[in-house]
Specification:
The protein is about 35% helix and about 40% strand. By secondary structure, the chain is α+β, with helices and mostly antiparallel strands. It has one domain: Hypothetical protein apc22750. Chain B (Translation Initiation Factor IF3), CATH 3.30.110.
Amino acid sequence: MLITTTEIIPGKEYEIIGLAKGSTIQSKHVGKDIGAGLRNLVGGEVKAYVEMMNEARDIATQRMIASAQEMGADAIVAVRYSTSAIMQSAAEVMVYGTAVKFK
């Protein structure tokens, strides 16, 4: 599955099938949250949350790909990511794009 943030795939003609999307909500357990709070006091990267967000993006992307495959798509164009805090220590990651079929 070809995935791109651009709206055009050079050299390819395609028809739009529909919206492909995927999302997930992730959180860290309380032990990691306490460690992150301590890191916040001294500054620096909070590795536990970096890992959490990387995992969340991967899961959401795989769900978007599955959505596009169900529609019979060959590619997803104009892909965008969005995040939001659901509650303390939990975040939603959503990814969406336009599913297309090559002519």
